[in-house]
Specification:
single chain; alpha+beta; four-stranded antiparallel β-sheet; four-stranded mixed β-sheet; 4 helices; elongated
Length: about 190
């Protein structure tokens, strides 16, 4: 396979990790595994990551989420929701069950009992509210999905975003109203 210039991107996911196959007619994408007979110009990347159209990037949000001990891994994306004009910023997370147990077991009536899905959701959502306080209002996470298992990854351990979005194994939680933090008295 021949290398392809970084000016071209995968037509499916927008990754620059594409190479021309031996037959010279098709491109293969390392990130999503797609094979296509054409590429997407780098200028069309806005089609891939629409959060960037809103003036931000998922990378900033994911970096903040990576610092939360109750979250093992996260992926942030813009989710299209029927009836909404704009994308809903959604965090798909894999909980760090060990840290949740260590940090929150003492707060419970029965510390030795296993955490329910609802309790884990509330714990993680409370942490996300703390992260949202550090973000501009338009970048705040509005929806949370809890994933069991691991994210699909490339050989370089990057999350295969489009493979993840195509899979439906994350437990979807309802959108949370007023997810953006209210301004405190000091900020007004």
């Amino acid at each position: 396979m021949a290398l392809v210039t970084k000016m071209n991107r995968c037509a499916v996911c927008g990754s620059s990790q594409i190479s021309l196959m031996a037959d010279g007619k098709y491109y293969h994408c390392e990130a999503c595994g797609a094979t296509s007979n054409h590429t997407m110009p780098a200028a069309d990347l806005a089609k891939v990551d629409r959060i960037s159209l809103m003036g931000g990037s998922t990378e900033e949000i994911e970096t903040l989420l990576s610092k939360v001990p109750e979250i093992a891994e996260s992926m942030v994306y813009g989710k299209e929701v029927a009836g909404e004009k704009e994308l809903i910023i959604t965090a798909r997370v894999i909980p760090n069950y060990e840290e949740i147990e260590n940090l929150h077991a003492a707060e419970r009536k029965e510390p030795s009992a296993a955490f329910t899905e609802e309790e884990i959701y509330k714990i993680i959502w409370n942490q996300i509210k703390q992260v949202n306080r550090k973000l501009s209002n338009y970048k705040c996470i509005r929806k949370l999905e809890i994933k069991s298992g691991q994210f699909a990854k490339t050989s370089t351990m990057k999350i295969k975003r489009f493979a993840e979005l195509a899979s439906d194994d994350a437990k979807e939680m309802p959108a949370v109203e007023n997810a953006a933090p209210a301004a405190t008295e000091n900020e007004q």
